[in-house]
Amino acid sequence: MRPKELCCFLVLAMLTFITLASPVQARGVYDGTTWTEGATLMVEEDEDYDPFSEEMQKAADPLERFNRAMFAFNDRLYFWFMKPVSRVYAGFIPQGVRFCIRNAYHNAMMPVRLLNCTFQGKFKAAGTELARFAINTTLGAGGMFDFAGTEYQLKRHDEDFGQTLGHHGMQPHAYITWPVFGPSSVRDTFGTVVDGFLNPLTYVYPEAWVGAAVRGGRVVNNTSLTLGDYEDFKRSALDPYVSMRDAYLQNRSRAVRE
After folding, report:
1. Consecutive H or E run containing 120
2. Could you give the CA distance from residue 216 to residue 209 in angstroms, rounded to a whole number?
3. Which of 139, 175, 235, 255 has the fewest beta carbons under 10 Å from its own?
4. Are the C-beta atoms of 225 and 31 separated by less than 8 Å?
5. How much of the chain is in helix, strand and coil states, percent to nearest 5?
6. Tens digit of each residue's pLDDT (9 = 90 or more) over 194-222
């Protein structure tokens, strides 16, 4: 391999690693304001929610030994890599700018939410997504400001294909902790793959290294906005693995019901 090709390969590998390197890159995690991509997995607070009113969707854990090993791997990956990188990033980029970057990404992901709302027959929510996209893209400076939410009270509907499958009756099946990607299930793993094809950024940035750079920047940006949350979660849990698993499954069960 020639020096130039080797250099490109190393840069691509580093960016891809940054893209994936977070202990909780699964569905339904807390990003500081809503349940989406981020760096902590807890249960969203809701005063009207009764955890005993409906039975949580069950998922077996036949891979617990593997899952615990991957949980430990992801935990070290966060503390040894993602946290230091995100802290340096936060030291250079003002918080307001980082919120704008996150908002712009959410705006660009509208097609994923729109299609999954449609697949679930939630046509009012799909219309809201279209309205939010139009307002935020124009008045919100390309989506950097959530003008639709703050001025028109149009709430974002975080629907994904894993929720779509659950809506139509598919159970989570086995719980899985993927190395680097974090907590998931058989259903949500398949849903994540499908959402990858629905993601418009996949086609806007077809070059692998550009796509890796965009995704890597998003992960670092989101993590920088939630530094400390994962640490608080671990301190409050008797068994962090069990707490992570149960919180993930409960959160996904609620997302499907809603």
Report:
1. none
2. 10
3. 235
4. yes
5. 60, 5, 35
6. 999 999 988 887 777 777 788 888 999 99
How far is residue 127's CA from residue 118's CA, in Å, rounded to a whole number? 9
Q: Are strands 182-185 and 35-36 parallel, antiparallel or unpaired?
A: unpaired
As a dihedral over the C-alpha atoms of residue 40, residue 221, residue 46, residue 107, rounded to 10 degrees, the angle is: -140
Structure confidence by residue, pLDDT tens digits, 51-108: 444 455 567 899 999 999 999 999 999 999 999 999 999 999 999 999 999 999 999 9
Tokens of 71: 């949980």
Q: Could you tell me the pTM of the whole model?
A: 0.78
Q: Whose structure tokens read 């020639």? A: 2
Neighbouring C-beta atoms of residue 170, cutoff 10 Å = 16
Alpha helices in 21-122 (DSSP H): 64-77, 83-92, 95-108, 110-119
Assigned token pair, 177? 């902790």
Rg (CA), the chain: 18
**DSSP-derived secondary structure for 199-232:** -THHHHS-SHHHHHHHHHHHHHHHHHTSTTHHHH
pLDDT of residue 38: 36
At residue 56, the pLDDT reads 53
Of 170, 160, 163, 135, the C-alpha closest to 149 is 135
Q: Output the CA torsion sign for 39, 178, 191, 241.
A: negative
